[in-house]
Structure formats: C-alpha cells, structure tokens
Specification:
Chain lengths: ~475, ~280
Amino acid sequence: MKRPLFAAALVLSAAAAHAFCGFYVGKADAQLFNEASQVIVVRDGDKTVVSMLNDYQGELKEFAVVVPVPAVLQKGQINVGDKKIFDRLDAYSAPRLAEYYDPNPCERRAYEMRKDAVAMSAPMPAAAAPQSSKALGVTVEASYTVGEYDIVILSATQSDGLETWLKQSGYRIPANSARALMPYIRQNMKFFVAKVNLAEQAKTGFRMLRPLQFAYESEKFMLPIRLGMANAKGPQDLIAYMLTRNGRVETSNYRTIKLPANMDLPLFLKQGDEFRNFYKTMFGEQAKKEGLRAVFTEYFWDMSWCDPCAADPLSPDELRKAGVFWVNRSDADAPQPVPLPGRPGILPRPVPPMGGGAQPVMLTRLHVRYTPETFPEDLMFQETKDRQNFQTRYVLRHPAKIEPDACAEAKPYLEGVRKRQEQEAQQLATLTGGDINAIRKKMVLPPVPPQKPWWDGLWGNGK
Amino acid sequence: MDARFFQIAFQAALLTLGVLLRDFSLLPAQMALCLVAATLAQAFWIRRLNLHGVGYLSPLITGFGLSLLLRADSLWLHPFVAMLAISGKFLLRIRGKHVFNPANFGIGVALILLPGAWVSPGQWGNDLGIAVWLVALGATVATRAHRDDAAWLFLGVFLGLTAARLFVLGYPLERAWEIWSHQALNGALLLFAFFMISDPMTLPDRPAARRMHVVLVAVVAFIWQFVLYRPSGALWALLLLAPLVPLWDAIWPGKRHNWHGNRPLQNNVAMQGKIAG
C-alpha cells in the first residue's frame, strides 16, 4: 500500500539556491519494486554491520531466514532494528524528480520554484521456515531470543545434514537447499537461522517483522545472494544501502554502472504515479539492456550534506541505529533542520548532521535485478576512493508562459521550448523503450507550425 | 615489425570499445592527459640520460594501460601517475633492467598513496564477446612478443586454482562451471594476462625462471583474491613479486629481451652508467 508520508509546498529564493535550484517533486522509492529485498551494509576495515529487512507477507509461524555468517555471533552482536531507518535511507537516496521554471525571457527577474514532495514507504524479502532438534553433523553453537526472533547459530559439517536438521526442526526451507548450502559450509561459515517467536512478536505490537541486524568482523565484503535463489521465481531485486567511510562502493565481480540520469523529461511525469511508473519501466528497460548482468548505482553522496535534500539527512543517532559504529552519539540531539529566519517551514539545503568533528559517512545505493543464471556468484564488493557525488535525478522544466509577440526574445524562446520538448519526448522513449507517439500525445505538444518545405523560397518567390 | 605496434593498436581499440559500450567512468581528458604526460616524461628522461635508440612506444603502452585500468575522480591523477610510472621505469633499475612494469607500478602507487584513485575489476563485465576479443587480440600481441607462454601460463595456473577451489567447495558441476566461466571471462583478468604480465621487459630472462615467476604470480594472485578476499589479486601479486625478478636473473642469467633491432635500452643505459644499479 502506498502511504504518502508528507506533501509540502515550499518556496525557495533564488539567492538561497545558488548551487542547485531544483526541487524534488517525486520519488521512486524502494517500495516500487515489490520483489525487492533491502539491506544495509555498514563497513569500515573488516568491521561489518548488516541489517536485513523482511517484508514477509505469509504466516509468521512459517517465517525463517538462514544467513551464512563468518563466525558464531554473540548475543550482543545481534539486534532487532527499526524499519524506519530503511525508510529514512530510502527517502534520502531514492531516485528523484526535480523541477525548474524557466525565467520569463521578457523580464529577466529571479525565478521562483515550487515544490511538492511525495515520499512513499517500504520494501521486502524472505527466506525459508521454522525449528526443532537432532544433529546430523550439525552443532547448535548458540541460541538466543532477540526481540521477536528465536535465533540459532549453527555450524555444520555436511550440507545434507544441515538441510535435514533444518527440516526436522520445522524450518521450511526450499528443496535443493543442501547444494546451495554446501559451499558456505566448506568455507567454514556458520549459519544464522532466525524464526519468529510468536509470543514475543505479540508483545511487540508490531504487525511487520522488524529488521534483523548483526555486527561481525570479516575480511569478506560480500552479500550471499545465491542462497535466496533456491526458491526464486523470475528475477529478484535487491536494494543495498552501503555505508562506508572513504568512498563509493561497487561490486568487484560484476559491472557496476550508473543509471542514466540528470536529463530533462516531459512535464507530465509530475502527475500522479507517472514518475514512479516511469522509473520502474526505465529501470526494467536498463536492466534488460544489460542482460540482467549489471549492478546499478542509484545514489552516492557524502551524508553530511545534500543539495538539495530529497529528505533530511540522517541524524547521528539514526546513523548509529543503521549500524554506523564510527559516528558519535554525543551530538545526537543537535542538528534538526531549522527553519530559515523569516521563512517558516523552509528547510535550509545542506544540513550538517554530524556536528563538530564530523566523521564522514558515504552512502552508496545499489540496485540490482538478478536471476540465478546472470549472477552465478555472490556479490563481492570493494570500497573505492571515488568521491564524486551521483544521484538519479530527472528534471522537469516549466516553460515561461508568454505570448510569441510579447517581446523580441519571446519567439526564439518559444521555438527553443518546442525543440526541447521534442527532445524530452525522445529521451523518455529511449529510456523506457516506450512509444514516442503516445508520449507526444500525452505531452500535448503545442501545435507545430506548418513546416515549409525545404525548397520553399529557393527560387525567391516562395513557390 | 615491433610487436608493440599491435599492442598499442589493440589497447586503443579496447579503450574505444570500453568507453563507447561499457560506461567506463573515464573522461577523454583523463586519457589524453595520461598519454601526453607519459610521452613527456619519456622525453624528459631520454634527454636527461642522453639515451639513443629509445622510442616512444613504451610510454604510449603505459598510457593506454593506465587508462584502461585506473580510474580517478580528478583530472590530475592520470597524468601524475603516468609520470611516476615512466620515471619509475628509468630510475628503478637493477643491472640496467627496470624492476616494475610501469603501468603496474603506477597503479600500485596510486592505489596506496593517492586520493581518489581506484580500479574497477568488474567494469568489463563478462560478456563472452568481449572476452573472446580480448583473448584473440591479446594472444596476437603476446605471441608477437615471444612471451606468449607467460599469458597462457598465468591464466592456466590462476584459473586452474579457481576451478580446484570450486571443486573443493563442493559446487555441483553445472554451478561450478557457471562460476568458473564467470571468473574466466573477467575482462580485467584477461587484460592483465595479455597486456601486463606478458610484458617481456619485467619478467626473468631465462625461460624456466620466467615460468616459475609467472606461476608464483598466479598463486599469489589466487591467494589474494580467494583466501584473503581482496579484489584485484593479479595486479597486487605482480607488483609485490616484481622485486624478486632481479634475484632470479642473478641466479639464472639469460638473454635479455629486445623489442626491435635497435640497441636495447637496458644495455645502452648500463653501458653509459647513467643509472645506479
């Protein structure tokens, strides 16, 4: 279900927006992709904190998740987090639509911009099923109840044994899991297995399962996507928020590319769900173009500022909740966005959330659509030293409303607008693989003046 | 004809292909500056050391190599690294033979010391077509340089170890094949094999020693990547092991490679006693 979180109309003076004067009027958030899993990976050196969000829809008692982890985790290394953090990261980094107004070519005065922003919420994934006893080369290394989850950490010597153990223990894991589990066992990894403790779940009062988080040290900077493919039907989406200290994160064993962005698109994208639909189609088209073999960067930015912000940057407290262990809690309650003096309700653009002695947090948002055939290996990552910001931002340009005979500049201006709109239509068609004529129709392009044939006037008499 | 002409042509073709088809995050200006800086550095050292018979193919190859592999978020990095790489070639010599492959040395320095530099081992993707092209083109170059054994030997050992790993990890055969071919078709790996480790100037002179060294590089690259789980194993292995080459040459002396009919640079330099070592 789509839940608009807020809608606001703001005015920003041109003076306050010298570097960038667009506004976000729409977002294509993670919820759009209903087969999408969301995960936050925080990493510095070998220290890693992973948060996984389950938008599990089935019966809670049947829910189970199996995650290979590098070592037996202590209870303190496991946490049940807050889904809000995912929503915040999503809102902050989602693909966005910015809106500009052409200045009136007749009166060169500073222009105004308006903004409506609509943000939506939410994501999903899930794995297999529930519990029991008996060992077939399976050792229960530890078991905890954390929040609404019953967690066991297993080590195993053979994959058949592990599969059998899980099934006997009531976990509903897909057939052929043994084959998928084997390589992890051979790499000496442990298995983090969680199911829902219904009594505890009832106490929490949440309908949704809250995200599981775990902190560990490992030289492996990876996400085990292969395990979830056992029960996959068709392509799956994963949105990964990678939080690091030095630079952009990319996959080292697949291509990581940026989505086409920062281009002008037709104005009708502002209406209703048009932008969301555009983004969804566009992403699908681009992923298909790459043969579902590439990882897409949707966003990369130093989180201490944004320009402008699609949503407020996360506070140090929120960052810590996301697992960013190098951010100090001390200035937690400091920098809420403060309305600009004399302009109630207007957010200043760059919001420094980290306070004094800020320690950098870089956010890379990766979006991948994969199938078992196109992604034969787990995702391996590397942190680069790249610090060039990137956002999937699309621009709407409102033409100035003037008559062609308003002034000398008006006519060439309006001609320019027409050309621009045609380009926008073509741009959109190329990005989404859509029908150019349908787009033109939707844009209600202003009547094209009857074109004179090229030879008109060649002989001097117009015939 | 000098095998390096082929190499330059192929590198240029690959780069064009990559920039056009592969969304390399490489700016044309970065590439241009890189090539110019490498050439200028070469000119500087030729003049400074009063060398004769030394051409400008080598800086072009280094410049293309750096453009193909190194990524940067600034404009100054590529030319700076190109100058370091070429200068390293002239200054870091033992018995007249340069220790490091210039592009490899430049990339290593950039990754360790310079801000805003990285390599993207996954950027080539695994498309069969590209891989086959790389192999075909690279093989031509390497064969012409009479060091084809290095490229193939490296690939054989490295990919053999990867296959063995998959077997040990117990993947079912078809899955293992999928993963192995994914790894074997990594463009960066093939590029390394055919354009970097096969550089005859920085491998041991004697064939047996050369093979041993290549095997060593492949093993270290494998350990780097699959035991220590760090990316770009091949680049680091070549860099780390390069200082051993003079040792192998001292133990097993052999005939030095000569790119063309001209007087080889090394002997030239050694004769004139211009460079320590």
